[in-house]
Design the sequence.
């Protein structure tokens, strides 16, 4: 996977696929703010799309995940603009039954808005219903956390290619870190975040919560195995099921995984 260490992949003669860097970090956050926070099913269901402060808290979650140095972006070659992103997160199995998962801690301690808390608690709840560490007998995974593409660049398979290379990146980590983003690289706005210590392990699976028809198609094409399907109507925000705000009573999410070895 030479591209991870030296040069990016050129996709469809129009886009560079590369690891997230200090130069592309601001553009990646813009994609999340303008696309994920507005159009993603769970953002609509939790009304993050109507709450700018809640959206900013999701950006802080992305910044925190960026420090794991496993996120990827698609950059339009002609404009040098970030147009699609996969913010990925290294998840390590808890060694203590009393230790709360990362998403649950973030929702409780760092969300001030009910909208952002609802969305991140949704992630924690769904992850908790299907313990992929136990299912695969592993101690570490790479989770494709947030996947988003600017509206004018959709339907060009950028989401699929970012997920494909996220799997390849997850395999590469076995040989050592592929890069290193620091708190300083993220700018003064995120100076309160904690620097990463070495994980002491490496991903054995790649996992995702596919929350839309588009991402579910990506998972199927890339041969992710679906282990759990959860109707979005089970999640309530301010008295309304997510599915009601989405406008699809049958909307659901999938917990899926891909073994790396």
Sequence:
């Amino acid at each position: 996977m030479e591209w991870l260490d030296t040069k990016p992949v050129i996709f469809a003669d129009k886009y560079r696929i590369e690891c997230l860097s200090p130069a592309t970090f601001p553009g990646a956050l813009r994609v999340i703010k303008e696309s994920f926070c507005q159009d993603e099913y769970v953002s609509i269901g939790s009304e993050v799309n109507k709450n700018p402060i809640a959206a900013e808290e999701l950006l802080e979650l992305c910044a925190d995940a960026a420090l794991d140095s496993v996120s990827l972006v698609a950059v339009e070659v002609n404009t040098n603009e970030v147009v699609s992103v996969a913010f990925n997160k290294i998840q390590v199995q808890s060694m203590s039954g009393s230790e709360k998962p990362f998403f649950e801690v973030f929702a409780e301690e760092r969300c001030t808005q009910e909208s952002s808390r609802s969305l991140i608690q949704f992630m924690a709840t769904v992850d908790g219903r299907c313990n992929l560490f136990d299912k695969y007998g592993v101690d570490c995974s790479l989770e494709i956390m947030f996947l988003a593409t600017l509206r004018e660049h959709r339907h060009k398979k950028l989401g699929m290619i970012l997920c494909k290379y996220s799997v390849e990146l997850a395999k590469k980590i076995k040989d050592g870190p592929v890069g290193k983003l620091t708190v300083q690289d993220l700018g003064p706005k995120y100076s309160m975040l904690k620097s990463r210590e070495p994980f002491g392990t490496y991903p054995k699976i790649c996992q995702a919560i596919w929350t839309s028809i588009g991402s579910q198609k990506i998972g199927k094409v890339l041969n992710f195995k679906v282990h759990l399907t959860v109707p979005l109507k089970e999640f309530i925000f301010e008295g309304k099921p997510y599915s009601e705000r989405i406008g699809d009573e049958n909307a659901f999410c999938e917990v899926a995984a891909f073994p790396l070895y």
Summary: The CA atoms of residues 98 and 205 lie 24 Å apart. The mean pLDDT is 94. The longest helix spans residues 114-129. The two ends are 16 Å apart (CA to CA).
